[in-house]
């Protein structure tokens, strides 16, 4: 819903869109959840307390008491990541409760796909006998617990709500996995941008998604049926 920015910390959702989402969330037949790889604290600064928020791929939410126990990232892995920042000073490390993330968007032109694969291999070698794995997303390498993912969160939510119809939106390659958790006869998946290759519908840019959210709100206010 936010425009794409170099620094994820600078991502914001327009107030008008938040108000439109609030209208949708108040509808008795809509169960709206904001699911993100960003920390829960990041989401709580940007959305009202009334919103259901699920941060760090669903491992921390503001509407359930389930919270995973923290596990330390191996020392060798931490050292390798800190070394990367020294080698590439325009990159940076983000530390979450269940992962460390190396952001390299500002230097992506200097890193070939072969180099990234080499770095992933080196990082993976430091993770033996741990619960962590290396994931390559949009200009980031994330060392995250293997049992935490948007896919597992969505799969559990779908299984506990077999009568619900789901409409899911995503803009990152990481979202492809949770799209696959929504049965074809139980909803639609919508991609924003051109990163995701398998979706039912596509929005060219975040502004198009925001326009769609406005359209849904206007339909509700006119008491018209939601589009299928």
Provide the descriptors you would attach to this structure in a database record.
2 domains, three-stranded mixed sheet, globular, four-stranded antiparallel sheet, Hypothetical Protein Ta0175, Chain: A, domain 2, 10 strands, Rossmann fold, alpha/beta, 228 residues, 19% strand
Task: Provide a compact summary of the structure.
The protein is of the alpha/beta class and 228 residues long. Helices cover 32% and strands 19% of the residues. It has two domains: 8-67 and 148-221, HAD superfamily/HAD-like (Rossmann fold, 3-Layer(aba) Sandwich); 75-145, Alpha-Beta Complex (Hypothetical Protein Ta0175, Chain: A, domain 2), CATH 3.90.1070.
Description:
This protein is α/β, with parallel strands linked by helices. It has 7 helices and 10 strands. The strands form 3 sheets. It has a 4-stranded antiparallel β-sheet with strand order 4-5-7-6, covered by helices on one side. Helix 1 crosses helix 7. It is globular. The mean pLDDT is 91.
Global geometry: globular
Taking all Cα atoms into account, the compactness measure Rg is 19 Å
The count of DSSP E runs of length 2 or more, i.e. the number of strands, is 10
For the residues shown, what is the average pLDDT? 91
Annotated CATH architecture of the largest domain: 3-Layer(aba) Sandwich
Q: Specify the helix fraction band.
A: 25-40%
SS-based structural class? Answer: alpha/beta
Low-confidence stretches: none
N to C succession of SSEs: HEHEEHEEHEEHEHEEH
Query: So what's the CATH class of the largest domain?
Result: Alpha Beta
* CATH homolog superfamily of the largest domain: HAD superfamily/HAD-like
């Amino acid at each position: 819903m936010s425009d794409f920015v170099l620094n994820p910390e600078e991502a914001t959702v327009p107030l008008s869109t938040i108000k439109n989402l609030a209208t949708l969330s108040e509808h008795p037949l809509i169960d709206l959840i904001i699911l993100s790889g960003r920390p829960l604290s990041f989401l709580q600064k940007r959305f009202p307390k009334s919103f259901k928020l699920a941060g760090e791929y669903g491992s921390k939410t503001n509407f359930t008491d389930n919270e995973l126990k923290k596990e330390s990232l191996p020392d060798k892995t931490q050292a390798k990541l800190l070394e990367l920042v020294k080698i590439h000073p325009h990159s940076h490390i983000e530390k979450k409760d269940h992962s460390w993330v190396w952001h390299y968007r500002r230097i992506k032109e200097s890193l070939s796909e072969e180099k990234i694969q080499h770095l992933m291999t080196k990082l993976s070698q430091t993770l033996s006998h741990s619960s962590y794995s290396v994931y390559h997303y949009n200009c980031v390498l994330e060392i995250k617990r293997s049992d935490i993912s948007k896919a597992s969160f969505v799969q559990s939510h779908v299984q506990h709500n077999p009568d619900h119809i789901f409409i899911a939106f995503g803009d990152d390659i990481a979202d492809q996995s949770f799209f696959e958790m929504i049965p074809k006869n139980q909803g639609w998946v919508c991609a924003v941008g051109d990163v995701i290759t398998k979706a039912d519908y596509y929005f060219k840019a975040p502004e198009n998604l925001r326009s769609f959210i406005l359209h849904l709100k206007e339909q509700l206010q006119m008491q018209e049926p939601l589009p299928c």
